[in-house]
Amino acid sequence: MKLFFASDLHGSLPATEKVLAEYQKSGAETLVILGDVLNHGPRNPVPQGYNPPAVAELLNQYADQIIAVRGNCDSEVDQMLLSFPMMMDYAWVMLPSGQRLFLTHGHLYNASKRPPLREGDLIAHGHTHIPVAELNDGQYIFNPGSITFPRNGFAASYGLLEDNHLSVVTFDGEILAKTLIA
Asked: Least CB-packed of 28, 79, 82, 172 within 10 Å?
């Protein structure tokens, strides 16, 4: 199983085109979107190529391959443009290993405020726009960073879960964070 993670698109068409091209090249079966899909939000500037209807149209072509959760900038009006559900604050995915993967945006649950997780479970979230892939207190914390508004000097990035490895990767192929899932 190979999962491709993207977060914090914020309605940027060029960023969405870039991430979908990388998703197609990756060979992943599922695109996991960790919120803030169409709207840039009041605290962010208007992103380059801001075009939420075109982003929705492009993502809808992959609707049967997407698992998405709602971010703090996502609304019911946004959902009206999308052909895949994204209004849940979280989703659970069972991994073949028996570990549970908790997907959320990060504004409600995150590395500091986790839901009830067992030892070895994973939480994947965006929101901070800062890449992370690490084992912390017996649980795996994963943040693919941001495609549109990377922070703390990091480059735009996405995430992969493949062969028991969590990786955060830039579009130039640089690995920003990586951890082995035991």
From this structure: 172
